[in-house]
Amino acid sequence: MSRRSFGLLMLAMLAMLTAVPMAPRLVAQGYSGAPPIVSAHSGTSLRAIYTSGTITYGGASQAITGDSTGLLTTDAETDCTAPAYASCNFIYWHSGTSLSTTTTLATAFAPGNVVVAFVTTTGGDILAVTPASRNIATPSASRTDRFFLASPESCSDVYTTTAADTGYPKWATAATGESLREFQTNTTSGTVTLTCQVLIPASLTTSGAGITVTGLDINYGVTTTTLSSVTDPVVYSVTGPTTAGGTAAGTVSTTPLGTIVLTPTSTNWQKTAVTEGVLYRGNITAGTALAMNSPNVFLCVKIAFVTNGGGSTKTLIAMAPFAVYYKSAAY
Fold first, then answer.
1. Cis, peptide link before residue 169, omega less than 30° from 0
2. What does the pLDDT look like over 215-226, one tens digit per residue?
3. Range 83-88 average pLDDT
4. How does DSSP assign 248-307, residue by residue?
5. Which distant-in-sequence residues (6+ apart) come within 8 Å of 169 by Cβ?
6. Which helix (H) or strand (E) holds 2?
7. Predicted pLDDT of residue 236
8. What's the predicted TM-score (pTM) here?
9. Structural domains of the chain, ranges and CATH numbers in brackets
10. What is the mean pLDDT of residues 53-61?
């Protein structure tokens, strides 16, 4: 074959190849567009300006319009160290085309928000601006809307003047259908004091981290006889030995939640007899959240029911699970 013929053959083969449809090029999915850049505003104290850019959140994105005036940050925020962010200005996106600022961790990291930068300040000026490592939506670092249910099985009962009726306490199925832990007295009036250890699910306990308890609900019912009164509940903690095989310990604190707020208010918890299975709900809100991150600290709640009794009347007190409210550390 001549050189000219060989050349013509190669051109024909190339034409055939280019005529065959090619599979589309696969491009890995990723984030597009540069995020806004946050910096200190020269000559204007505490102002954090930012450029235009793109916020990415999940599989969507949002164009951001730059702000040359800048967000006014808060002075004396000097510690943006993760995970505590003890004293920090957060620049974040929530919605729309602009950014916002806050010093509240839970606000900045609320579900759906995107943190763009961390800003420390001192002496009326911005000390440093640190971009967020990735420009994506982050779950809340401190979730305050969580709860778990603790069984009343752990409640011990003490009777003053009155006594437990035969066969009580026990689990029973109420007429309304739910299972309740029930305590019934004899016909003598007196006080039934229940002390319940709040058992935290194993999935929530971590040494040194764990959860912080912010409050709890006591769900109870009273049947047959209206109570004389319900004493204000008391929350307390017990701190046991710090080391196995070490010195015995059992330090009781009656204010582990600080100054609590009761709903209903003090001395006004409901006491009127209702149908078995119908419940009252009383709430205890912590003044100071309690960290439950040590295996030797136990949380308890105590509440007393004063019965009327007399004659042939017995009083039935029913306990449903406690709802325990908490917030968790970053995850």
1. yes
2. 999 999 999 999
3. 90
4. ---EEES-TTSS-EEESPTT--------TT--EEEEEEEEEEEEE--TTEEEEEEEEEE-
5. 155, 157, 181, 182, 183, 184
6. none
7. 93
8. 0.58
9. 38-131 (no CATH), 146-328 (2.60.120)
10. 87
